[in-house]
Structures are given as structure tokens and as C-alpha cells.
Amino acid sequence: MSVLAAAVTDPNTTVLNGALILALPIAVAAGLVSFFSPCVLPLVPGYLSYVTGISGTDLADARRGRMVAGASLFVLGFTAVFVSTGALFGYFGQTLQDHQETLTRVLGGLMILMGFFFMGLMPWITQREFRFHKRPAAGLAGAPVLGALFGIGWAPCTGPTLGSRHDAVVHRGERGARGRTDRRVLPRPRRALRARRDGVPAGARCVRLGQEALRLGDAHRRTDDDRDRHPARHGDLERHHSGHAGLDGQLHGGDLSSMSKTETTDETAAAAAAAEHDEQEFGEAGAQLSTAPRERAVPGSFGGVMQPGAAGRIAWAWRETTGWVRWFWRQLTSMRVALILLFLLSLGAIPGSLVPQTGVDETKVEEFRTAHETLAPVYDDLGLFNVYSSVWFSAIYILLFVSLIGCIVPRTWQFVGQLRSRPPGAPGRLTRLPAYTTWRTETDPEQVREAALAMLGRRRFRSHAVGDAVAAEKGYLREAGNLIFHIALIVMLVSFATGQLFKSEGGKLIVEGGGFANTLTQYDDFKSGSLFDRDHDLAPFSFTLDKFVGTYERTGPQRGTPRTYEAHVTYAEGADGAEKKTRIEVNRPLEVDGSKVYLIGHGYAPVVTVRDGRGREVFSGAVPLLPMDSNVTSSGAIKVMDGYRDKDGKKDQLGFQAFFVPTFAGAGKGTMLSQYPGLDFPVLALNAFHGSLGVDAGLPQNVYQLDKRKMKAFKDAQGADLKQRLLPGETMKLPDGAGSITFEKDVKEWATFQISQQPGNVPALVGAVAAIAGLAGSLFIQRRRVWVRAVRGEDGVTVVEMAGLGRSESSKLPEELADLAATLNSQAPTAPDPAEPVEGVRA
Amino acid sequence: MPDGPGAAGGTEKGDLYGRVAVSLTVLAFLVEAGGVVARALSVQRAPWGNMYEFSITFSTVVVGVYLAILAAKKNVRWAGLPLVTTVLLDLGIATTWLYTDSDQLVPALDSYWLWIHVSTAIFCGAVFYLGAVGTVLYLFRDGYEANLARGGKPGAFASSVLERLPSAASLDKFAYRVNAAVFPLWTFTIIAGAIWAGDAWGRYWGWDPKEVWSFITWVAYACYLHARATAGWKGRKAAYLALFAFGCWLWNYYGVNIFLSGKHSYAGV
User: Fold this and answer.
1) Residue A63 — pLDDT band, cuts 50, 70, 90?
2) Contact list, B149 vs chain A (CB under 8 Å)
3) Is residue A836 part of a domain?
4) Residue at A408 is within a domain
5) What ipTM was assigned to the predicted interfaces of this complex?
6) Which residues fall within 8 angstroms of residue A211, CB to CB, at 6 or more apart?
């Protein structure tokens, strides 16, 4: 009841804040009111005529369907606009609200200006005209766009209802803000939800407005008497270039003729026959338009007849071996095998993304091994943990690149040969070529050929005169691009491979205040390529981590998402270079002398002090702990290796299991996990042990884990394991005067850096750029030949024939030929038609 | 075989409906583009930081490319229906499952390479999708033409829908051109990504799942382009390769983000 009451007293409140179900009918009612506003109603007939393409006087005879369709499309158009503005206002409502004070003043000023404007006090403005001069086409097709324009143009005029609606959308934010006591900013999900919901009533209003438009449209039709039909309009139907298919077939023929292959299927046999046919037709003209390899391999026996005797046997074996080697080579360098290898390469790369890879994440591989005890050895044998360096994957790409080289080298020589020779002469019958034109001219054949030569030269065709014709060719860059692309791939592969041999990569964890010098002993972990010299190749430089700054999203569903990570460092180039300050960020590594220092990770290092029973300090410092989750819940170990003596004065070692949260949930909340990655409420939880840390054996040990095999837990008064949560400044006492540990009021941050040297990047980059350029050239440039033949006909008039042939499937060739023909025609104009043949002859 | 008359079936009325549909598509495109711009304003950066933003931009670009080709007076109106239907699907997925509130970028994405790498990736995907639509229709139409050539009688679906499509040769050529035109850009996208990875993660290529799958997509499209120029592989076989390649692209987008964890996981997805 109270909701309904609210609806009656304040509709805006209900529409915006109340139940959506109640909001809909109210919005519909508001739409109805808007529709009958004096601004809208008189316009309806005009719009209806416009959107249906039926003039008012023609209306009565028009079909109901067309009217409804036009009106519906129109409605759709303005619905789109209203829904969008509704949603938009809803979304930006809060923003506008934040600046309401300013907005009110600015808008007030604008209102006063508008007043002057209407009074004609600002003629220099009113004389200017702001109007759309481009109108959408009348008729159904234009109706939605017109509706949208209507929506935009008339939104302010559809009465106070709409105004107050959107106004209320703006003000809704205010109520939302008032509802909360301390924060003015609404939580994001609610804002988004509102933005969506604002769209719905706007839509409902459009439905209402639209329904009215439809109803009136119908009435409009019925009351009109005139029965003249609007003349049928002729939509410009799209033209279809049906000619292309035929041309395409011929181009394919040309294509095939240059790269005929021995194929076995019926379909390709037919194609090959057609190609052969075309080859005969075009002769040399179509030859070598591409240097794509011809397939000549003939499987079978190569030895032929074996002569008796050992010599004969050896000769036969030699022929057989070389024959097979050649056959294998031809198979390998054929396009078909290259295709199969390419496909295998793509398939072969797949397992590497599904199975954890040693090179990517070693810990995941270990997890997988423990989880799948039977599967893991099989995977090991198949090299599935190292797909990209496995034997089979290497085999695929090495074969592919051998095939590539075997293909590129001969093609390059062929191409060089083509560049040094000239385009082939004109085939006998130019009419057979895919693009052809002819005309008769009074100009001498020699002059025509000269003009053609000059014209083709200007168009940068390589051209020369052969016999009675001019032969020209263009688009060599296609083949050049093709070759460059494939060579660039080889360059990239080689530079990656050499880069792997000479690269080095190491990690280092540094606590604020700590430093690093680039020598092998300083690294936490280090790996390098087999040709990297660990003693001499490391660039000499050093840096210290002054400060690490990490900020995180404070509010909203993304609370805790990292926003900035900055490592402020001081670095020095060389052994004793000048000190410089800089900042290392995730996307901005520090580059020193060919080495790059990347910021990889960060965490916290609480500062603790351990004292023995007599209060003597035995350990003090920041202990880096490893983060376990995105809120930087961290764990690690504090190890007091020497200097500690127990209450009896005996040497002993202490170990603490440390668990740290930068933001504690609070005591009794049931979780020790961190709630936020920033240092809001740091708590350190400790378990204490004593005994042997197991470090004396000299074996390397995980610094973040406590080896408790030879350690005993301290017990509290109840006999349970001693553990305690410490706030900064608090101290945990060890029982029986064994000493204490203090969590100092200082938590340092640490950052991990990756320092890597990776030579070979420059050639790889050059290769990559060349690959793209070559690829673009080979795909976008058309290689084509043009012939111009000019001969004197029997009647003494010169017959000019022009024809073109392209390797690639382009519809541009006929167009280009037409253009060339037009140019040439201007210099060798068409002769007047010869006298009409006598009737009798034609019969 | 000549091209079919188009969805309009050659009638004036049909053509009018076609133009109405295009007009509505323009409107929808404008609204959707407005949505993308509003999102960009709301987050105050390139709106490509998570799958939701990527999806809405992607579908906007798909429609935009389609409309641009239409505006260039090419005969591609036939692609409208499959295109708009899938765009709707994509938007549905984006708003129901992938929706993420406006937010800043995580530090790893805060780079000008975001503009370069992601925008080209989106554009390539949009154009590859157009190519895939052409390829699927080519396969149907090719079957239909083969059936006619055998003297078979096409079913009701074939005679009402497939008959109106452009000829198989035209569709095949359209798909090839579209794929070939954008392939260099896809190459560039991968290289730009590698350069960015070099700056952000300290290595240019690390076989991260996203990298692996963009490589697979690249190789698959390379395979298609080669197959298309090779006797015995052109036609249906090449078309299957093209679909495989686009499948890889799709998987690289949805599958890798959702099912595989890697360095391209941001904002949940």
C-alpha cells in the first residue's frame, strides 16, 4: 500500500526508485500525455506521410501494412534514442549530481542568454541558421533514421514529463547519496543496474508514444478519401557482376598454367587439362607469371634397367638412390607438403597450451606430476611438458623451414631471371585473354606502338616492343614481397634461435633499502643460453631499491585490484658510475647497458627482532614473506641460525613459522586470510620452534620454509603449541625465559626483479617488419601483363588490340585495361566505321 | 553459375525490406557505438580492458566493417542476417556473463600498446568473422550448386535461401579477399603483442596460452592462404581450413580466457 501511495504522491520517485513493475504503467501514461502535447500531435500526420513515403492525399488507398511498418520503424528509431538517453542520463546522473551547483549556475546563465536570443537582442546570432540540410530519404528505409532524428530533435519538446523524467534521473543520484551517511559515491553495481533500469521505463514510454503513433496512423489512413496511388518507386536494385565468375575461371586457368602440378583427383585432372589447354592457348604469355614451384615428382622406381654385373648393380643403386633423394626433396619442397607441415605446426602447438609447460610455469608442472602419477611419465616420454623444444615439434618446424628454403632459393633465381629478361611477347590470339579490347584507327601502327610504349612506361610497366606488339608487365613487387616475407620468417627464426643461445635471465628479490650488483653470485636464480659467458657477459651495473609503492582499488567489486606498482630505485652504470634515480614500473623496465630490469612481483617483509632469555638481540631485520593470494596473505619462516643461547646458556637455533596479512579481518571473524592487499591492519601470526634448522649440513634450503624434522615446538601454559597473533609493536614471549620475538612497527615491502639480456632482438624486429611489408606486398599488389598489338588491316586502317592477363584474382584488371585503352585511344582515335556492308553480303 | 538475386529475391518489395533492415542496422550500430563511447568515457581509457569491453567493441566493429563494405557499394547485403544474429548473441553474452563494472586498468595493461595491440586484434577478429560468414555460406552454396550440377532437386530451404546467395565462386572470392586483406594486420597484431610482452613481462615470446593460440591462428590462416593458391586444395578443403582458423581465433578469445589461465587474464576474465 505504501508503495502505491508513494506512486500517487510522487510519480518520479516511483519510476526511479520504486518497483519496476509499477514504473512501467506510469511511464506509459506519461508517454501518452507527452504524445498529446501540443508540440507533438500536429506533427504526426506529416511524419507519417514522410516515413511511409505516402503523401497525405494519397493515403487512403495505401495498404494498412505499409502504414504500420513505417510507423513501427519510426518508433524503433526514436525508441533507440530515448532508451539511450535514459540509460545515459541514469549513468551520468551521479556525475552531474556532483557538479549540480556549477551546472545550475551555468544553465541559468544559458537560460538568460536564450531569453535575449528569443527577444532578438542578439541578431548576430539569430541571423545564422543551424539546420540539417541533409534529409533522410522518404519511405520505409529512412523511417528508423528519421525516428532517431525525431528523438534527438524533439526530446526537449515532448513536454515537461520527459524533462522531469530525465531531470529526476539526475536527481535520483542525490537521493541515493542522501541514503548513505558518509559516502557520496554510489557503489558501482547499483549505478550500473540503475542505468539499465532507466532504460526500461524510457522504452515503455516509447512503446506508448509508438502505439499512439500507430493508432493515429491507422485512423489517418481510414479518414482520407483520395484514391490516387503513389507512383511505384523503383528501388535501385543492386547490380550483380555476373561476368566475374566467367572471368574468374579464366584467371584461374591462367593461374594454373603457371603452376601446373601433378594431381590425381578427377577434379584436378580436369583443371589440369583446362590449364594445359590454356597454356597452349596463351603459349609463353602466361608462363612464369609466378615463380610458384611446378610439381615434377614421379614416384616409382628410378633405377631403370639393371645391367648385369657388379658395376651395373652399383650404377642402378646410384640411380635409384639419387632418384629417391630427388623425389623426396621435391615432395618436401612441394606446396602440398608445406601445407601439411604448416597444418601440423598449428596442431602441434595446441598441446603446449593445454598441458603445463616447464618453460612457462615449473610449479604447475610439478603439481601436475603429483596429481597424475600414471599420465606424467607418458607425457614426459612424449615431450608434452616441453612441447616447443620437443623432438617432434622441432622436427615439424625444421622440416617446414627446410621446405621453405628449398622453395625460396629456386624461386629467387627464377625471379632474378625474370627481372633480367623481358616480358614475353604477345600470344597469337589476344581475344582469348581474360581482358580484351580492340578498335580501328587512322594512326600508323608504328605510332600506336610508340604511343603504347610511352604510355606503359609512364605507368611504370616494364615494356618493350616485340614484333607487331608491345609487351608490358607490372607488379613485380608482388613476387618480391612474397620472397621477402618468407626470407624474413627465416631471419626471425634464426635470430630467435641465436637469441636463445646468448641470452641470460635471472631473478632477484630486494627488500626496500637493499641493493643488487649484476654479478652471478647476487642472483636468487639464474639461467642462460649455452653460449652465454657467465663470467664476462653480465653488464656491470648496480641498483638499490629505495621504495616500493603499490596502490590498490579501495572500493567497488574490483576492490583490491592493483592500480600502480612502482619501484623507486637508484642505479649506477658500470662499476662506479654516477648514481641516478628512476622508477621501474610493470610496463617500463629499466634499461642499462643492454640489460633490462623488469619489475616482476612484490610482497611484504615485516621487521622483527628476536632476543634471548637475557634480552640480548640475536636477530633483527626485515623478513621477506611469500604472497599466497591476491590480497597478499603471506607466509614464510624466520630462522635464527646462530648467536642464540637458551636459558641454560646452551647453543640452540630458533625457527618461526610466520603468517602475515596486510589487512586482518579482525579477531573472531574466522579467517586469517588477508582482506585487502594494502597495509591497513597488519597482523603477524607466529609459531615458535627450537632445535636444529638443518642448515649446518650445507645443503641449500628453501628460505621460506621451516624444516621441522629436527625441531621442537615451544609449548604454552596449557601444553599446546605456542602461537600468537602480533600487532605491530607487540612481542611474543617464549616460555621459560627462552627469549622473545617482537614485531616492530615497521613493515617493509620487497620487489622481485628480472634482469635479462636478450641479444638478437634487433634482427628479429627487422625481420618482423620486413615480414609484414613483404606480406602486404604479396597480397595487395597485382602482377599483370598487358599487350598492345597494332597491325595495318587489309583496308589500310590500323587495328589496335589490347589484352591483359593477371595471376591474381582481381576485378581490377579489366578496369585497368579499359583505362589504358582510353588513354591510348585519345592518341590513336577510333576511325569512323567502315561503310555499311551491302545487304546481300550480310545475308 | 551466376550470383543469386540476393535476399530480396529481385522484387522491389523485398529490396525495400532489405533497405529497411540496413537502415535499422545503421541505427543499431550508432546506438552500440554510443555504448562503447559511453563506456570509454566512464572508464576514461581505451574500453578494451576486459572481455565485456572487448566484446561490445568487437561486435560494434563487425557491424561497422559490414556497413563500410556496404557503403563502398559492394554486394554484401547477404551477410547481414548471420552477422546481426551473431552480434546479438555476442552482446547477450557480453551483458549477461561477461559484464564487469567500469574500472581502471591493472598495471600490466596500462600502456600505449593497449591502443595498438588490442584495437588491431579487435579489428582483425571482426574482419575474420566476416570472412568466416562468407566461408560458411560458400560451403552451403557450393553444396547446392554441386547438387544442381548433378541434376538433383534442391529442397525447400535450398531453393528459398541458397538460391538467392551469390554464386559459390563469388562467396569464396569474398572470403579469400577479406581474409587475405586482414592477414598482414593480424601478423602485425601478434608482433605488436610480442613487443609489448617484451616491455611488460621481460620476454617477447613465452608460449603463454594466448600467444600459443594467436600463433596457431596465424599458422592456420597462412595455411588457408597457401591452400587457396594450390591446386587440389582450393575450394572446400581450403574453406574448412579457413573455418578451422577462425575457430582458433574464437577459442583464443573465449576459450583461452575462460578455460586456460595465463598472463592474459584480467579482471576475472
Assistant:
1) low
2) none
3) yes
4) yes
5) 0.87
6) none
